[in-house]
Design a protein that fits this description.
This protein is α/β, with parallel strands linked by helices and about 280 residues long. The chain contains nine helices and twelve strands.
Length: about 280
């Protein structure tokens, strides 16, 4: 009898676990430079839900641990997520040599247009890491708070416009007045002329500042890739920004990924989930 009871308990726990697991759907959509690879995670136990579009940074992809953990934590709270690879990244089409902030912004516009048509979504918010935060901030600025519920910027990297204007990208120097066909970073990655020539002219703050909804800016004082001051600077362009200063963490928050994501999820849950949900 005890064995039988244990068997049925195991079945019940299995069914409960399956019912609470998010529904995952991989798909592609047309981006600025070919098809974009994307994945949609929706809560299985809810008919209506808010959606957060999550954007990766420079030379990263949608499978980055920081982002997949954030997605999983949001799904457990009943919030859907949509992750995708920008052109020239991950499983998306296009060449990294042709990637620019403007064409990543166009990719993001098209992802938003897809998300806007989903039938069960009550609101859309944006979250981005590093250069993905820059793209997310600009998209929010373009669309406004009527279309973007809230915005989260992780280790935002607006300094990239100033660096490329001086002919410096991640410590590799070149003549900004005579931009080469490409430069090779220390990790062997080649960055094309299109990126080097267009980035200094991208008005990041001017576009991003148009967004008047709630914003969470989170940055580590020990970020060695994008200095902490840029997080502070970014937060100052918004009227309704909450700034979270971290310590002892790198650019990707690898020392406490789950802990940082819990802060973000708590913020998003408080902003997006109503008592009636």
């Amino acid at each position: 009898m005890k064995k039988l009871s244990l068997f049925f308990l195991t079945i019940i726990l299995f069914i409960t676990g399956c019912a609470s697991a998010p529904i995952n759907r991989e798909f592609t959509l047309q981006g600025d430079h070919g098809q974009l690879s994307a994945v949609l995670h929706t809560p299985a136990h809810k008919q209506m839900y808010p959606l957060v579009i999550i954007m990766h940074g420079f030379n990263a992809n949608k499978k980055m641990g920081l982002l997949t953990d954030l997605s999983a934590q949001l799904n457990k709270r009943g919030i859907a997520t949509l992750l995708f690879d920008f052109n020239g990244h991950g499983q998306s089409e296009g060449s990294f040599l042709d990637m620019t902030i403007p064409n990543e912004l166009e990719d993001a516009r098209r992802v938003y247009a897809y998300a806007e048509k989903l039938p069960n979504v009550t609101s859309i918010s944006l979250t981005g890491h590093s250069m993905g935060a820059v793209v997310g901030a600009m998209l929010a600025g373009e669309l406004g708070c009527q279309k973007i519920k809230t915005l989260v910027l992780m280790s935002a990297a607006p300094e990239i416009t100033q660096d490329t204007a001086k002919g410096d990208l991640f410590g590799v120097h070149y003549d900004p007045k005579n931009v080469p066909q490409y430069i090779t970073l220390s990790n062997g990655l080649k960055v094309g002329r299109a990126f080097l020539a267009t980035t200094p002219r991208v008005p990041i703050y001017a576009i991003a500042a148009r967004y008047t909804g709630p914003v969470l800016v989170i940055h580590s004082k020990d970020d060695q890739l994008v200095p902490y001051r840029y997080g502070v600077e970014f937060s100052h362009i918004y009227e309704h920004a909450q700034f979270e200063a971290l310590e002892g963490l790198d650019h990707n928050f690898t020392q406490d990924t789950a802990g940082v994501n819990r802060q973000i999820v708590d913020y998003l849950a408080a902003t997006l989930l109503k008592p009636v949900d």
